[in-house]
Amino acid sequence: MSEIQSRKQDHIDIVLNRDVGFPDVTTGFEKYRFDHVALPELALDDVSLETLFLGRTLALPFLISSMTGGPDKAEQINRNLAEAAAELKIAFAVGSQRVALENEGAGGLGKTLRDLAGAIPLIANLGAAQIRGADGPDLAARAADMIGADAVFIHLNPLQEAVQTGGDTDWTGVLSAIEAIAKSGITVAVKEVGFGINGRVARQLADAGVSIIDVAGAGGTNWARVEAARVKEDDRHASIKAQVGAAFRNWGIPTAEALVEAAMVAPDATLIASGGIRDGIEAAMAIRLGATLAGQAAPALAPALQDPEKIVEHFTVLGEQLRTACFCTGSKDLAALRTARLRGLDAP
Amino acid sequence: MSEIQSRKQDHIDIVLNRDVGFPDVTTGFEKYRFDHVALPELALDDVSLETLFLGRTLALPFLISSMTGGPDKAEQINRNLAEAAAELKIAFAVGSQRVALENEGAGGLGKTLRDLAGAIPLIANLGAAQIRGADGPDLAARAADMIGADAVFIHLNPLQEAVQTGGDTDWTGVLSAIEAIAKSGITVAVKEVGFGINGRVARQLADAGVSIIDVAGAGGTNWARVEAARVKEDDRHASIKAQVGAAFRNWGIPTAEALVEAAMVAPDATLIASGGIRDGIEAAMAIRLGATLAGQAAPALAPALQDPEKIVEHFTVLGEQLRTACFCTGSKDLAALRTARLRGLDAP
Amino acid sequence: MSEIQSRKQDHIDIVLNRDVGFPDVTTGFEKYRFDHVALPELALDDVSLETLFLGRTLALPFLISSMTGGPDKAEQINRNLAEAAAELKIAFAVGSQRVALENEGAGGLGKTLRDLAGAIPLIANLGAAQIRGADGPDLAARAADMIGADAVFIHLNPLQEAVQTGGDTDWTGVLSAIEAIAKSGITVAVKEVGFGINGRVARQLADAGVSIIDVAGAGGTNWARVEAARVKEDDRHASIKAQVGAAFRNWGIPTAEALVEAAMVAPDATLIASGGIRDGIEAAMAIRLGATLAGQAAPALAPALQDPEKIVEHFTVLGEQLRTACFCTGSKDLAALRTARLRGLDAP
Amino acid sequence: MSEIQSRKQDHIDIVLNRDVGFPDVTTGFEKYRFDHVALPELALDDVSLETLFLGRTLALPFLISSMTGGPDKAEQINRNLAEAAAELKIAFAVGSQRVALENEGAGGLGKTLRDLAGAIPLIANLGAAQIRGADGPDLAARAADMIGADAVFIHLNPLQEAVQTGGDTDWTGVLSAIEAIAKSGITVAVKEVGFGINGRVARQLADAGVSIIDVAGAGGTNWARVEAARVKEDDRHASIKAQVGAAFRNWGIPTAEALVEAAMVAPDATLIASGGIRDGIEAAMAIRLGATLAGQAAPALAPALQDPEKIVEHFTVLGEQLRTACFCTGSKDLAALRTARLRGLDAP
Ligand SMILES: Cc1cc2nc3c(=O)[nH]c(=O)nc-3n(C[C@H](O)[C@H](O)[C@H](O)COP(=O)(O)O)c2cc1C
Ligand SMILES: Cc1cc2nc3c(=O)[nH]c(=O)nc-3n(C[C@H](O)[C@H](O)[C@H](O)COP(=O)(O)O)c2cc1C
Ligand SMILES: Cc1cc2nc3c(=O)[nH]c(=O)nc-3n(C[C@H](O)[C@H](O)[C@H](O)COP(=O)(O)O)c2cc1C
Ligand SMILES: Cc1cc2nc3c(=O)[nH]c(=O)nc-3n(C[C@H](O)[C@H](O)[C@H](O)COP(=O)(O)O)c2cc1C
Question: Which residues are FMN-binding (chains A, B, C, D) (predicted)?
């Protein structure tokens, strides 16, 4: 097992079994409250949750967020997720294709994925560090082709790289690399991994031709803590890295705040909210605040390790929560939800 | 026992024995504080708590809020409550008459109720789903006649219906159904069941001819959690509903906030505050903020299962707390209480 | 033992042994912070805490607040407190003289008290209920003469009376009774017993000729809970009173807030702050916010039951805390302390 | 062992083993949050943390804050700290030289210290009480010469002195004594020991010719509690002092607040932030808010008792945390960090 593959395996174990959230940072969604409408003048069953994304119609405005699965389980996870996404008619973003690109579609990241996924939006995934340099657009094209993707996610994870031994810590030229890929005609999506994209970066990305931004904010999985949890304490250098990572346990922009800021400065971008979204009510808030889709990674991991049915059930619950939130705010569809009254509890 | 009757029985058991409140939502009354008046210039015994409601004079400004009692206990509960209300001279609203209408006054909801209740205001009860369609006014008239009621409560509980298996989830036409009943000459009261009526709905109701609005806000019993607690986990569909319901554990408009909003937008309606009111001091706050009556359901349930004396003692305590609050704010009656200084603790 | 005497005995036991504070109300002093001055340019020993009160010079700006001691211990308590106050040169207010007036100075409330107290300010004590009617001024004069007092405290305790069986609950005419005493030439002081005097009452009192106001606010001993704790649950009437009292566990105006309001509306009155003052830093805050003296009752009770030395030590600690607060704010005396920077932590 | 030496030994034991922090006061840094920058456009390794201090270039903007070590351990501690500081290229301030001045450089505070420290900035230390009077400048010169220091810290600790038996409590003339030293040509630095320097004092110091101010605010070690913890309860006088000290457990100006105020009123002074700084992110905030260096004492004590390597590791971690904070705010050096977006969480 290569170092990078063993890392991915560790990630899954840590996310499933350890407390690696943000101790004192929340997503910010708990600072909002929908105004309950006791007279919805709707039938619950008539509420439509359909949405258009990447030119395809989704039944529910959800994204299964990028997760790499490690050497043993990646193939099964990706197969399960693709099948479930197809059945649910929701979007599916695969995890980093770095290993797969070097191993011809290993981990289930080959042509069969699109077959399993049917007509749903499929998004490829590359790290910022990989696309720097002249062959960025080429690599992105290969990643997309490999799985028949509609777009390519570039993930920005400077903190995660900084606190891991051997991480990619040269982040010069990333913006122009992104721009080059967008110019090459590929639909580019950009995401963080849980520390959020601030307004200024969102604006830079939109200006560089990025059409989809997933703010991936703080309040869910904290990747500095995940990396710190991997460290064997006897290695001095690694132990320093771990102590550095631990200090960042409360770093990052809460998801709701990042979303509000991005909606303000990048009104033309398609926004996705992810990072700690817990249920369909918070998904409803995200949509109300400007998101087109709400994404989840960690909460979908346990079901993904089981079978497609578990994943379908997981997102069905989320969908019914969202539908009920629409119903109880008198919103017949997501466009109506965007005008529902949402009160900020902090405001005087 | 029919499905609906076994549900009612479950409700009572769950409300009495399980924690089904709102984990992080409060009524909002704790954000207020009366200004203590050390020189009341009153005699405690001279404080009058009398109020006029539905043309009848109450000794205390309280409402026993609607509760259905299930097949076994309904008759006893209703008898106990009617007798106690008569002795206390407070208003009494019966629980849903849906079953009783089909079973000729079963559960103590027949003509004898008025005999027991004497001259106090008595309010019938129907769900929004039942009154839709042409026979709404007729049904409301029958419900009122059945028990000799002064008015009919229509309860709006879209969330409770949405999270229960087989709930009534078509809420189209409810407003016009309410309007039709009001036009037919029946005094119409409308209430939620614990998620609150917001300002916009309060205004719609007033415009439709509703004369009494019970905001029935959040902070007391949470009916999404009550319904979720009923679910046997082995039924997949029901288990999804239960997970939906659980997500709504903090949904709803705090009672005090709903009341303040309703008082602002529907100044001519007679307002009732219920939902989590704990004692006579909170009842005093409700009256200060615009309510004519304060209502309680769940806190009156245990006494109601015992005997009229227990109910009388329960509301006597509430009354003495209210009287003492009047005394210590220098208010000789409820009109004076409405001008007492009440400080919002949030305000700077 | 008369009913009233057994009540007083109970009070002492309850205050010493049970938790009868305010669960969710604080004095409000914790919302302030003195600005530390690292360069005081003073000698600690040169800080003067002297103050003029009732024409006499105190070494420390403290008042031992009124406490009645019950049949067995009153005499000893009063003797201990008088001796200690004389040694400390602080003011001493005796507890209610209601029983003593009927029993010719029982409980140590006779002429010897002034002998023990020496030249310190001594304040008599009567309840509002007793002074109503034509003989109020006469009673007040007798209470003062009995112990050679410099002034008479009238305590206003409407809530305490309202929640106790057989309490005095006719509070009409109290203000004019107070005015009559003031007109008769007696120096009148007025206090609450722990629920606070609000701005409006403070103004009324000042207008009626009251020269000293002790706001005796919420945050320390809660007398509604003390009375509720006395109740034997088997008496139905008493049990109702106890449930009424329990509801008032968070009633009242926080001491610091009452003080700030009184200072604003009654700038000419001599103000005393009492009710939950814990240490010399809070005493310093009280003085900074407008008080001439800071008073304590419950914290002085345990030492008072022992011997004068314990009381002297208790107030010596308080005095040294106050002196150190003056030193660390660069205040050479209490006049300087009144201009020290005190920051309200709530203010933005 | 002299009384003063046994006190110093106690201090070390208490700081290491007892909870002597501020129960309800925090440094205030937790009220801020850096805006995460997902696109830093930097290489982590290119981030420069160099800073100029006292004419010497530091590799990291840190100060080992003054600590006296007691009779047994002082020499070892000072040697360890000097060696580590030299290796780390950070500034080092020795503890009080009061004893060393009387004992010719005892405790490792002689000429060899500068040899160990190499080219790093070294700061001498005297208490305010010692420099009063005509020989202040002479004493300061001797303290500096003794160890080859670049500057002399005068520590202002009026509260610590006030709550200890036999403390120096005459603080008249301290400011002019400081001014005299500055006028004599010595570079004067002034610090508190954990209760903070407020804006007014900072301005006075700057006007008196002080060029370096360490605000040494509240939120870390509380010296009133440390002194209170030393007391043997059987000595009445000492027991009173201990009770005085305990009341000051929440006294003082939070470090971040003191810093912001000093930066505002004394813009020309070189500011150091110390008092409860926990990690490199809080150090980054301090620098962002106006500090040139961030200082730590108590957190460095345990490593200092071991060996130079432990100290090097401790500050290396702090440095890497700071470097990562620069990286994730897109700041290539400390000048850039000073313009990074830092959000105050309290602000609306
Ligand atoms: C097991 C796991 C693996 C992940 N791998 C990737 C990845 O390869 N690429 C990526 O962009 N994000 C990856 N992420 C981050 C997620 O896409 C997401 O941004 C983040 O976890 C926040 O969302 P959450 O709170 O719903 O988990 C991974 C997350 C998890 C839990
Ligand atoms: C056992 C029980 C049964 C109830 N049944 C009804 C009902 O049939 N109709 C109705 O309008 N509300 C019903 N309610 C809701 C109450 O009337 C009330 O609105 C709600 O419980 C909030 O008030 P509370 O916090 O004082 O309980 C019921 C409540 C309880 C506790
Ligand atoms: C044991 C005890 C007896 C008291 N008796 C009287 C009294 O007779 N008259 C009175 O005006 N206040 C009386 N008080 C009230 C106190 O004077 C004071 O206003 C109140 O306790 C709040 O101050 P504290 O928080 O320092 O106790 C009594 C208090 C205590 C603890
Ligand atoms: C063991 C110890 C000894 C100290 N001795 C001194 C001293 O001699 N002179 C001085 O100015 N400050 C002294 N201090 C105070 C520190 O320099 C510093 O201002 C304070 O502890 C706050 O910083 P911290 O929270 O990082 O500990 C001492 C601190 C400690 C922990």
Answer: 65-68, 96, 125, 191, 221, 276-278, 297-298
What pLDDT, on a 0 to 100 scale, did the predictor assign at position C279? Answer: 98
pLDDT at A297 over 80: yes
Q: Is C239 annotated as a binding residue?
A: no
Q: What is the pLDDT of residues A108-118, one digit of tens each?
A: 999 999 999 99
What pLDDT is stored for residue D67 in this prediction? Answer: 96
Cross-chain Cβ contact B196/A317 below 8 Å: no
From A65, A157, A223, A271, give the residue whose CB has the most ligand 1 atoms within 8 Å, as the site to mutate: A65
Consecutive H or E run containing B2? none
Mean pLDDT computed over C237-254:
95
CB D118 within 8 A of CB D150: no
Kindly list the domain boundaries of chain C, sorted by start residue: 3-344
Can you tell me the distance from the alpha carbon of D269 to that of D276, in angstroms, rounded to the nearest whole number?
22
Using left for φ > 0, alpha for ψ between -120 and 50, and beta otherwise, residue B16 falls in alpha
**DSSP for A155-211?**
E--HHHHHTSTT---B-TTHHHHHHHHHHTTPPEEEE-SSS---HHHHHHHHHTT--
Interface contact flag, C328 D201, Cβ < 8 Å: no
Confidence (pLDDT) at C333: 98
Provide DSSP, C102-158. Answer: HTTSTTT-STHHHHHHTTS-EEEEEEHHHH-STTHHHHHHHHHHHHT-SEEEEE--H
CA angle C298, C301, C306 (to 5 degrees): 165
Q: Percentage of chain B surpassing pLDDT 90?
A: 89
The token pair that represents A123 in the structure block: 């998004």
Nearest to A172 among D41, D317, D341 (CB): D41
Q: Which residues of B are annotated as part of the binding site for substrate?
A: 7-8, 96-98, 160
Which ligand neighbours the alpha carbon of D77 most closely?
A: 4
Q: Ligand 4 in contact with D160 (CB < 6 A)?
A: no
Give B219-258 pLDDT, tens digit per residue: 999 999 999 998 876 788 889 999 999 999 999 999 999 9
Distance CA C287, CA C335 (A): 9
**B175-224: per-residue pLDDT in tens?**
999 999 999 999 999 999 999 999 999 999 999 999 999 999 999 999 99
pLDDT for D1 beyond 70: no
pLDDT greater than 60 at residue A312: yes
D300 pLDDT tier (thresholds 50, 70, 90): very high
Kindly report the CATH number that applies to the domain delimited by A3-25+56-320.
Answer: 3.20.20.70
The average pLDDT across D260-274 equals: 98
Pocket test for ligand 3, best of C18, C27, C68, C78 (most atoms within 8 A of CB): C68
Helix (H) or strand (E) holding C45: none
* Ligand 4 mean position, distance from CA D240 (Å): 24
Predicted local distance difference test score (pLDDT) of residue D232: 72
Lining residues, ligand 2, CB within 6 Å: B 11-12, 15, 65-68, 95-96, 125, 153, 155, 191, 193-194, 216, 220-221, 274-276, 296-299, 301
C63 lines ligand 3 (CB under 6 A): no
Gyration radius of chain A over CA positions? 19
Output the CA angle B62-B345-C27, nearest 5 degrees: 110
Rounded distance, CA D88 to CA D235, Å? 46
Reported ipTM: the value is 0.95
DSSP tag of B124 = E
Superfamily of domain covering D3-344: Aldolase class I (3.20.20.70)
- Tokens 């030119």 label which residue? A55
Work out which ligand 4 atom sits closest to the CA atom of D192.
19
Closest approach of chain C CAs to the CA of D32, in angstroms? 15
- How far, CA to CA in Å, does D348 sit from each of B70, B123, D345? 50, 46, 8
Strands B212-214 and C151-155: unpaired
Separation of CA A295 and ligand 1 centre (Å): 10
